[in-house]
Amino acid sequence: MDKCPHHDCFADDNTTCTLGNLERHLCPEWKTIANPKVSANAPSDEMLLPWSGLAMGESDLNFVSGRVKPITVGIVGPESAGKTTILGSFYLLLGRGALTTEEYVFSNSYTLTGWEAVATSMRWKPGPQPPRFPPHTPSGKARSPGMLHVAFRRNDGTLRDLLFADAPGEWFRKWAINQEAPDAEGARWIARHADVTLLIADRQALSGSKMGTARNDFQLLAQRAVAEARGRPLALVWTKGDVEVSSAMEAQIRRSVASVSPPVQEFTVSVAPGEGVDAADGFRRLFDWIVTTKRAGVKLPAMQASGHDSLFRFGRR
Ligand SMILES: Nc1nc2c(ncn2[C@@H]2O[C@H](COP(=O)(O)OP(=O)(O)OP(=O)(O)O)[C@@H](O)[C@H]2O)c(=O)[nH]1
Ligand SMILES: [Mg+2]
Asked: How many CB atoms lie under 10 A from the CB of residue 29?
């Protein structure tokens, strides 16, 4: 048996369990498997933290959203489109104080180990090895995306929590073709929960030898993402901005999101600096838009007659 009986625990030999135990054999729930006579609720004087620092899964979210509902940012795009590179770049810029202004100051993160896992290969380190891109995001057996958390304190002292959902491009490809695809659960999760969606257009794929296929795939994915966003903020993000794309192709890509109202914001990011352009600028502009985006409020219909309580007008469902 290699599955913990705790309903929220998906830990394996290498991951911290949902109760915060770094090693599985120390977990009281796990001990009940080895020795059924041991009670899982036996008192212990060890103090455990409810987070491990790793990327969060769906069942960890109650812990973050207990304070205030975080803004979930879904990064939707095909395989190798540069989705994880965006997150790694945000983290590296944040680390050297180059991402935010004084209006938003870094406050905390429950997933620093998860951020490190994404960004570590992108760092310059002493030695002959130049920085590398982050590894491909594995799809594995996970049913929901890995979530990276970061919180900022605003000028007025309030906090803004952000959760970035990074999923493998394979999920989105399957979801674009068939919304109900059994192995696209993670893509459906993002579509359902994202308060802000970044729709990724990969300039390298859109100018390469398979650009026709890349364009068709993008159009299919854009159609699905726009329909699912249902008025929630959506931005078109061109990745690999250092790669040239024909203006006809750019126009076709823009047309895929032309039906969105208000018109979608467009951003271009690249890890390579352009002529006289700092590579960080694109990431900064994108981050600024994300952090200042507001969740759409609930609109209650206007009351025609005063004195009628909403309960009696709308009933209870
Ligand atoms: N030229 C250029 N290439 C880039 C840039 N960003 C990413 N790439 C390339 O794109 C590849 C994929 O980047 P990732 O960030 O892993 O892409 P992803 O969308 O997370 O991919 P999956 O996890 O497989 O879905 C990298 O290995 C790089 O080769 C960029 O700014 N410029
Ligand atoms: Mg990735």
From this structure: 19
Q: Which domains does the chain have, with CATH numbers?
A: 1-49 (no CATH), 58-292 (3.40.50.300)
Return the residue whose CA atom lies nearest to atom 28 of ligand 1.
133
Using CA positions, which residue lies closest to atom 30 of ligand 1? 240
How far is 10 from 244, CA to CA, in rounded Å?
43
Alpha helices (H) in the chain, listed in sequence order:
28-34, 61-65, 83-95, 112-119, 169-177, 185-193, 211-229, 247-256, 279-292, 310-314
29-43, 65-79, 84-98 — which is least confidently predicted?
29-43
Higher-pLDDT residue of 47, 308? 308
The model's pTM: 0.82
Q: Does any ligand 1 atom lie closer than 6 A to the CB of residue 84?
A: yes
- pLDDT score at 308: 64
